[in-house]
Specification:
Number of domains: 3
Structural class: alpha/beta
Number of strands: 21
Mean pLDDT: 90
CATH architecture of the largest domain: 3-Layer(aba) Sandwich
Number of helices: 18
Strand content: 15-25%
Strand order of the largest sheet: 14-13-10-15-18-19-20-21
Low-confidence stretches: none
CATH topology of the largest domain: Rossmann fold
Bound molecules: cytidine-5'-monophosphate
CATH superfamily of the largest domain: CoaB-like
Radius of gyration: 28 Å
CATH class of the largest domain: Alpha Beta
Helix content: 25-40%
Distance between the termini: 48 Å
């Protein structure tokens, strides 16, 4: 590392230490003295096992620690305490853990004794990447994380499957094992997904217990009617894991962060297609609109990757930015950022690029020799992503048009295969679209057609972000 690199490593190390509770807290966490900690800092290297400890501490705080840069991303992943109780449906909890992980949650598993008759803690840990907790009086667990901390750090406690016996214990406030103790110690919202034999479900004792839990604000998900695991038909079947995961993620999404858990890729700015080392084909796109959209989505809680051509507007905060020059680089950067739940193609991508790139500057020769520029077509990034095997759930494009705006844009929406098109009428005289801070938009979907504006590009971005949030909330 150069001296500059070292200085920035020290700064990042110190910032990380600060965010994880200060140097003393780190020493006790890593069980090392002050000199060992200083060595890690001064040598620019943290031993792998200590780094892992730091990463799990960061995760406990809902942060992600980048192992190379030591940067802590403030994109908080919610922690869900998944309590699995013993029923035949317990094996479906593995699928549920996977779905919750896919939705962006950190899943910390807890299993009762009888759940371990059906699945092993090891199988659950393999899916969650976290330790699975089983014993109340396990000293190692107490040293690593006491049961109170385990209960308190969860954003939500999910009991799935919840047996009739466990529901009864919860209703009585019993605390005779780790799982029931956690339910009592937690102040977080609790959701239960019951699964049991239809007769047990229908029994007045079970129904009375459920009423007690409902009165205490416990959320109930299912059960469904159909074939139950014990072979009888009726109500008592565990709700499908993806349905449970969806409901739970909605429960923990704060009202002001409706896009949390979504990954949205935004393209912005122009592309520059080089002719020779000093010349290029480009356009006047300023990046204002795309950057504002990236910012607006991040403000609503989305994880945003912004792929931007050369612009003079500053990089927005709280988004991952990838700087590119050409359309081909933009496409590669977008593909590398997949999977995503949303794609917003706002960049003014050059339709063509020079067929050849001259390695050295093309010299001006006599007036009679004017070089011809042969062009080839660039990839259409929007159409490509709209037809991708990993297509995001929502694909949005822009269309700058000078005439028949709505009709041309609707046709473009269909042709490119995107879900929505935001059409800008280009008014030379009003100075909207390129480089201007105002924009007017016709928002076009398969069924809707709304006029927005003229509004500032920031207002357009906020309106679009809310539409995107509504799309995912109703999905
Ligand atoms: O076809 P046209 O360039 O008008 O389409 C505009 C929309 O398509 C914009 O959303 C733009 O970002 C996107 N686009 C693209 N790749 C291209 C050309 C346009 O993604 N090569």
């Amino acid at each position: 590392m150069t001296q500059n690199d070292m200085a920035s490593y020290y700064a990042r190390f110190d910032a990380m230490a600060e965010q994880l509770g200060g140097r003393r807290a780190l020493q006790s966490l890593l069980q090392v003295g002050p000199s060992a900690l200083s060595n890690y800092r001064n040598r620019g290297h943290i031993p792998a096992d200590k780094l892992q400890r730091l990463q799990s501490e960061a995760k406990m705080r809902g942060l992600l620690l980048h192992p190379d840069t030591l940067e802590l991303s403030n994109h908080k992943a919610p922690v869900i305490l998944l309590i699995i109780t013993g029923g035949v449906a317990a094996y479906k909890a593995l699928e549920l853990a996977r779905r919750l992980g896919d939705a962006g949650a950190i899943v910390r598993g807890v299993m009762t004794k009888s759940a371990q008759q059906f699945i092993t803690p090891l199988a659950l840990s393999a899916l969650t990447g976290e330790k699975t907790y089983t014993e109340l009086f396990d000293l190692t667990d107490e040293q690593e994380m006491g049961h109170i901390r385990l209960a308190r750090e969860a954003e939500l406690v999910l009991v799935a499957p919840a047996t009739a016996n466990f529901i009864a214990k919860m209703a009585q406030g019993m605390a005779d094992d780790l799982a029931s103790t956690l339910c009592l110690a937690s102040t977080a919202p609790i959701a239960i997904a019951p699964a049991m034999n239809p007769a047990m479900w229908a029994h007045p004792a079970t129904q009375a217990n459920l009423s007690i839990l409902a009165a205490r604000g416990v959320h109930q998900i299912g059960p469904d009617a159909g074939d139950t695991a014990c072979g009888e038909i009726g109500t008592g079947r565990l709700t499908a894991p993806d349905e449970i995961a969806r409901t739970v993620m909605k429960l923990i999404t704060p009202a002001d962060k409706p896009l949390s858990g979504q990954h949205i890729i935004v393209t912005s700015g122009p592309t520059f297609e080089p002719i020779d080392p000093v010349r290029f084909i480009g356009n006047h796109s300023s990046g204002q609109q795309g950057h504002a959209i990236a910012r607006a989505c991040a403000a609503l809680g989305a994880q945003v990757t912004l792929v931007s051509g050369p612009v003079s507007v500053p990089d927005p905060e709280d988004v991952k930015i990838v700087h590119i020059q050409t359309a081909q680089e933009m496409l590669a950067a977008v593909e590398a950022a997949l999977p995503a739940t949303g794609f917003i193609g706002c960049a003014a991508v050059a339709d063509w690029r020079p067929a050849q790139f001259a390695d050295s500057k093309m010299k001006k020769q006599s007036h009679s020799h004017i070089p011809a520029l042969e062009l080839v077509e660039n990839p259409d990034i929007l159409a490509h992503i709209a037809h991708h095997k990993n297509r995001p759930n929502l694909v949005v494009g822009f269309a700058a048009e000078t005439e028949n705006v709505a009709a041309y844009a609707s046709e473009k929406r269909r042709r490119k295969g995107c879900d929505w098109i935001l059409a800008n009428p280009v008014h030379q005289e009003r100075g909207t679209v390129f480089g201007a801070s105002m924009n007017d938009i016709i928002y076009i979907t398969e069924t809707d057609n709304e006029s927005w504006g003229p509004l500032t590009k920031t207002d357009i971005a906020d309106r679009l972000a809310l539409k995107i949030a509504a799309f995912f909330t109703n999905a």
